[in-house]
Amino acid sequence: MDEFNVNEEEIQEQQTRFICTANHGFAPFAQEELRRLFGSVKSTVLVSGEVFLVSVAYTWNEVAAMIAKQPPIFVRHIQPVDIEISAEELSSGLNELKLYVLDKKELQGATVSLQVRKSEQSLSEVSAGALREQILVELQDLQAEFIVQNADWILSVFVSSDHIYAGVSLPQDNLSDWSGGAVRFQREEGQISRAKFKLLEAEKSFGIDFTAFRHALDIGAAPGGWTSFLLQRGIHVTAVDPAKMHESLVGHPQLKIMRKNASGVRFRDNQFDLLVCDMSWSPKQMVKLVKDLLYCLSPGGTAIVTVKLMHKKPMALIKEVIASLEEDQMQLQYAKQLFHNRDEITLHMIKY
């Protein structure tokens, strides 16, 4: 604690607790990110490999500001813990939660998103959705409008086997305004693959206006999940893959299909303003392929690529991949393990 240059009493006063969520199995890497950012971090597992309670020697405002300045890759979502209620029964815990919420003056007259999560072994035997409805009944005296998205405030509640953790925060301070950062999309009729959800989430998480692009190159496009998304945004797409594209895409007036390996194609300089790549290749192969095609991406153009995490040192791998791409006039905007990423992350880069 000497590195913070404060005494023990000051540390106790500054202790802030918050709950972090990562994709399943990636919590250890999320914890490592927090250690690098905050120095000393105490953590307790709430859901194995995914959700953990953190304590650091900073205020919540400082925590939110530091994370916003240096966005983590594996920490998907955070929520403050303003109150920790120890309870043997759910009813007594909810009564104390009600008193806490009714005392929050900032919620009066505001729009509020109530986000409820629970561990498998929980005080509540019903689903998180049903528990949310139960809590809403308890909070009916609060003069607030409860909505799902784009609220003024988020009221976060996590219920474990013997505790209820709750906190109130601004949506932008939680890294995601979805509960636990679990971004949900409804599968469409005729949807080619779930890979489309990655671009939908990137669109929201990175603030990308895909309708602003005119010509996109999709490397390793088959069967066409990303291509279909780009076409829906009005973009002309060149899809490159030796495998077959989905039959629903064949003949689309804004689609050119090239049944070839991407390493064997040639384009005009600066032909595309968007390059996307979502292939199950090794990071080394992906980087070489993308770098060999960057000549056809115009200055100011955008690249969205996924990086498969194929070994036990993802931090070093990600750093190496980003450094290699930045050698070719690419500038990193975001590096994030999205909810719809599995053993991979998504990079958003711009060519300068």
Itemize the secondary structure elements and their pairings:
Elements: H1 8-14, E1 16-21, H2 27-38, E2 42-47, E3 51-56, H3 60-69, E4 77-80, E5 83-86, H4 90-102, E6 111-118, H5 128-138, E7 145-146, E8 153-159, E9 163-169, H6 196-205, E10 215-219, H7 225-232, E11 236-240, E12 255-258, E13 272-277, H8 283-293, E14 297-308, H9 314-326, E15 330-336, E16 344-351
Parallel strand pairs: 6-7, 6-8, 10-11, 10-13, 11-12, 13-14
Antiparallel strand pairs: 1-3, 1-4, 2-3, 5-9, 8-9, 14-16, 15-16
Explain what you see:
With 352 residues, the chain is of the alpha/beta class. The chain has 9 helices and 16 strands. It has a 7-stranded mixed β-sheet with strand order 12-11-10-13-14-16-15, with helices on both faces. It has a 5-stranded mixed β-sheet with strand order 5-9-8-6-7. Helix 6 crosses helix 7 and helix 8 packs parallel to helix 9. The protein is elongated and about 65 Å long. The N terminus is likely disordered.
